[in-house]
Amino acid sequence: MFDRIAPVYDLMNRVMTAGLDRSWRRLTVEAVVQRGDRVLDACCGTGDLALAAERRGGVVTGLDFSPAMLGRARKKSETIDWVEGDVLSLPFPDATFDAVTVGFGVRNVADLEAALVELGRVLRPGGRLAVLEITRPRGPLRPFFSLWFERVVPVLGRVLPGGRAYTYLPASVRRFPGAEEFVALLETSGYRDVRFRLLGGTIVALHSGVRT
């Protein structure tokens, strides 16, 4: 599926978020990345979050299991180490990284808790994790965003070449833990000082935590 959507992935990100995804990625790296950090961007897709981490001064590795996504990422940077691999079985020794980021990726992992534990394995003790993910909207804007994700985005996916996989998006958001539930899951997976903030009128949650 992810190889099929690679050609339209960046375009769909811009369209779905009205271009706000760039600022959300910047906030994500600002939450956990410091200059000189060894950074893993897991489920990196076409590499935009990894690029943001590199601009902040990180020494970045981007990992994804989709060859087509990585092919597009490699065209964006020759200095990032792009690695094909599975977030459930990372090809790195324990405590390799100072910071780990995941942008719009964990929602699609088969075993979410196992993935969080595995990300913690490759983080050094005291290392920082940031997860940026779509969440169920709340508040007065909820009807608008529900209409957007439930109706408009799937239609765009059917229209754009290779974008049909986006018709699954509403169901995947409904299955994913809410923001408070995800805090609890991070804590039971080996992270402390977990916090979150809602972005984009509550359609996106940015969680961060520290490996125990």
Plain-language structure description:
There is one protein chain. The protein is an alpha/beta fold. The chain has one domain (2-134, 177-211): 3-Layer(aba) Sandwich (Rossmann fold). It has helices spanning 2-17, 21-32, 48-55, 67-76, 112-122, 142-159, 169-175, 179-188, and strands at residues 38-42, 59-64, 81-84, 97-103, 123-134, 191-199, 204-211. The protein has a 7-stranded mixed β-sheet, sandwiched between helices. α1 (2-17) packs across α4 and α2 (21-32) crosses α3 (48-55). The radius of gyration is 16 Å and the shape is globular.
Summarize this structure as a short list of keywords or feature phrases.
single chain, about 210 residues, alpha/beta, Rossmann fold, seven-stranded mixed sheet, 8 helices, 7 strands, globular
The largest beta-sheet arranges its strands as: 3-2-1-4-5-7-6
Low-confidence stretches: none
What's the end-to-end separation, in Å? 35 Å
Q: Total number of helical segments?
A: 8
Q: Please bin the fraction of helical residues.
A: 40-55%
Gross morphology: globular
Average per-residue pLDDT, rounded, comes to: 92
Instruction: Spell the H/E element sequence.
Output: HHEHEHEEHEHHHEE
CATH class: Alpha Beta
Task: Indicate how many domains the architecture comprises.
Answer: 1
The CATH superfamily is identified as Vaccinia Virus protein VP39
Question: What is the β-strand count?
Answer: 7
Classify the secondary structure makeup into a structural class: alpha/beta
Oligomer type: single chain
Question: If you compute it from the alpha carbons, what radius of gyration comes out, rounded to the nearest whole angstrom?
Answer: 16 Å
